[in-house]
Fold this sequence. Notes:
alpha+beta, two-component regulatory system
Amino acid sequence: MPRAKASATTTSSAPSSQRPAQKAKDKRRKPGVGVSLSTKLVTLIIVLLAVGTASITLSIRELVSNYLMEKTDSQLLQQSELVFRNTDMLEHSSGSQSGLTSYYVKVYSNQQGVATTLVQPVFKDGVVSSPVLPNDGDLQGHRLGVPFTTDAVVSLRDVKRPPNHATLEQAEAPWRVVALTWVNKTSNGTSQDLGIVYIGLSLSDQLDTLSMLTRFCVLVGIAVVLLGGVISALVVQRTLKPLKRIEKTAAQIADGDLSQRIPEAPVNTEVGSLSRSLNKMLGHIEHSFKEQEATTEKMKQFVSDASHELRTPLAAIHGYAELYKMQRAMPDAFERADDAIGHIEASSTRMTALVEDLLSLARLDEGRGVNPTQQIRMSTILNDSIDDLHALDPEREIGTGTLTVNTHNPKHPELIFHPGDFPDVTLNVDGNRLHQVVTNIVGNIHRYTPANSPVEFSLGVVSLDMSPRQMVKLAPRQESLAKIMHKVSKDGAHDPKSTQYVVARFTDHGPGVPEDKLTKIFERFYTADPSRARQKGGTGLGMSIVLSVVQAHYGFICASRTPTGGLAYTMLLPLSQDFREQRDEHEL
């Protein structure tokens, strides 16, 4: 029993393993698979043209056939009496094979009970065609005065002379016959029913006309189909040419060249709209890949720099610990131990600050660590930072004032400092993070400028024709600040399309930073003076945190040289964060 069960299982599993292959094989056999779109379109157009011409041909044939049949019936009914009265003349003309008449006349006499042919048309070469009619006066279901169609009987008068094939076909055509009552009017005005009169017309001319019309329509239809196929092939090929270009561009993009773009076309066409959408999508994809590459490169550099920076305090801690072990048995061990412990404590403090800064940057990189829902007075934070700087450098002169935009020179608008108190400005930000930004900037001023050099803190509000989502994409450079200044709204806060920003500037009169190193200030672990940074407890991450916090608020910050050679930090933050709930068109 177990063997039988195992064999049955094996047998049933074999077909199931073949099912995917069978399905794939059936899928490959589907009609139309592997055929190009242009071939499908041309084939479809040819089929539609063929069906259309065939339908038109049949419609025209049916219409002409009905018209000719109605015309023949009208001729039979209108000329029946005239034909019957002139049977002798018609018989003479038809019997002479002159072809002057095509009428057939046959009467059936009730008195004699016989049928007599009065007029018999004779075709060429002695070919005689007669309609099939009863000889006993039976109407065979037909009504008097209503034309009907009947077959033809062909005979030859001259058997020695073979008839022409065309003549035989003409003679074999059916007949259109109408049966009428044979009435004889007497002298006293009464009518006498003598029998039935059959008057017929051959339908050979009508059939010949229909045959010629059909051949003409078929030839014209074939010409239309062939010409339509050629024209459709050219038009489809020309129409699908942009798609071919899109296909080639897509193949290059698939090979890794993300800089390729699809050639532009009129936007009001389907191909143009598709090209525009694909180019926009490719731009976003290329931008995302570049950002990813830049982020990966920054992450590699960040890990390398972090490892280097952490190695220094760890080496100091390890070295002083080893030194303590070596000297604890020597005289004055306690004094030497206190000195080693002091160095270990300083190194651990530096390492703790470095780790905290690293964690803060990691949270900001992940989009966490910022809650811009608090209403903060910017003047309060600046005044607190002034108090902190006074405590660090009591001899330093600190000036305050207001910032405005000088638009007298439209080509070079700039921020102007006016001494005085700070304006009362309230904005929606993360208060702790904004305080950290100002503290880090003040810390840099304390570390890298002389204690007796003056500084100015200024504050103002500007209206810009630039959304926060556009501003955050700008690089932290002085050139970007110039672009922002050119976006100053002419109508100010009254312009509904403009956005209001708080602008703060921190200006020192220290040694400054060379032009080629201004863009490196916000790089991680960059320090203008490494020895002074370590002496003052700097980690090289303060300005990187400043940039990350400002960008997390969709703001802008840059460093620039002052006319006296010092350094100025200019920061712009949107007054409101309501735009976060709206979807910007640039993110579509």
